[in-house]
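Q: Trace token order:
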Amino acid sequence: MMPALVLIPGLLCDQRLWSSQIAALTSEADITVADITQQLTISEMAAAVLERAPAHFSLAGFSLGSQVALEIMRTSPMRIDRLALLSTTHGGLLPPVQIALRRAIATIERGNFDQYLEAAYPTYVAESRAEDLCLKRSFLAMAYTIGPAAGLRQMQALLAISAAFTNLDHILCPTVIVGGQEDRRTTPAAHETLAREIPGSGLVIVPNAGHFTPLEQPGFVAELLQRWMTS
């Protein structure tokens, strides 16, 4: 029987975020992509993932999905065989991102979802990707599928995280932390802090990538996760 792997997408993302990684790992694992679009809090999202997951599984989260993964590690660490945290902090948002997200909520609540997405895209990717129309189409397609109502729920859930997770030094499963070299939302320094707080974790900084490492450097991240799953 193949090992189970649960992938948790990020804010306004769906399974397409992981398409390259799923293709690379399909022979290595039985893969499920979690849905965190219906819940109101990080704890509710974590509970929903656990309810649908097998008894034991490997877990990879991206951005918001990594915050959910850290909540799962707080409540149910014995169910997790290995952990991958992509584009995330040790708990919540960096102060400039908190400000940006509150502005985003106000923009979306005024009915300007399109305006928010157009302004947000360049802040999520490496500078060289700002004019990458293929990548932008992927970003927009996921966001429009998830929609503004779910996006607002996810944003509010992120803003409600008020402090770092306190159990990080108790995470004992094999853990890799992945960040983009040009990520302005969860900076390399934030990833370094998280890596220091999880004993024995590995840190990989992805070159030529901003926040969206699975889409900006799909082959690099797929190969990385293959090594993580099979090591």
The domain at 4-93+157-230 is CATH 3.40.50.1820 (Rossmann fold).
